[in-house]
Amino acid sequence: MNAQFFLNHEALIRLGCFVAVLAVIVGWELRAPRRALSLPRVRRWPANITIVALNTLLLRLIFPTAAVGVAHLGQAQSWGLLNQWQIPPAVALLLGVALLDLAIYLQHVMVHAIPTLWRLHRMHHADLDYDVTTGSRFHPLEILLSMGIKFGVIAALGPSALAVMLFEILLNASAMFNHGNIRLPLALDRWLRWVIVTPDMHRVHHSVVMRETNSNFGFCLPWWDRLMGTYRAQPAAGHTGMTIGLEAWRDPRDAATLWGLLRMPFRSAAGPTMLDGGNRRLSEVTQRDDDD
């Protein structure tokens, strides 16, 4: 099988990977949860899953070509940095995936820093619990904005269609993994978070404490947080003691219902962003290497 085979069956392969990873994480959550849930799944999952279905439908209707289609066009037109040099295909593939992941990291920092964008993104953070469905819980307007940005990044970088396809699979799989309410041995987690964002690493980002919310922005590769000074090893209260969500959104009618999620960006002020002093560099805080 060659690269063209995977591209010809992109939609089926992506769906198969999504279903397989989702099944594994859900089973893992049921068998070895990291934290007790504050709300039963039957209260949270209907809204979260409906949001995923709605976002999928919107993307198909508004962006029918998807990101891989933009990459195909970019290659045909020689758009982007990676199409300007003769780079070995394997190196170009790895560079394409890594640079796309860096772009997602920077976008994530941006939506925390700009009040208008934080209004959209806070729906993701307002989940009162942290599990596999949280990883796909984004406001439809943010999803559309994110796809538009992704198209621009692909045009500017010029990654291959295969690199974009692999990145999309990795992004979806890693988002489900690192949002999973799953328990990993602490020794394994310390090693693993050097190569991929782990659930314990990313859970810090969903803390109600804003200086922790504004850290650990990576979704797949953990290196950007370490390089940019936004890495935080552990939450101050520990993983079993920390509070998930946002201070201003504790009512399940707002944070765990479809209508509450959809109207969240249009209610009240944007709230504090990382530009309001909610974030401090790693050197300014005491880091804990171990947790309960």
From TrEMBL:
Pfam families: FA_hydroxylase (PF04116). One of its GO terms (biological process) is lipid biosynthetic process. The keyword Repressor does not apply. The chain crosses the membrane at residues 12-30, 51-71, 91-114, 151-171. GO terms for cellular component: membrane. Residues 278-292 have a biased composition (Basic and acidic residues). Keywords: Membrane, Transmembrane, Transmembrane helix. It comes from Magnetofaba australis IT-1. This is Putative sterol desaturase-like protein. Coiled coil: none annotated. It is found in: Membrane.
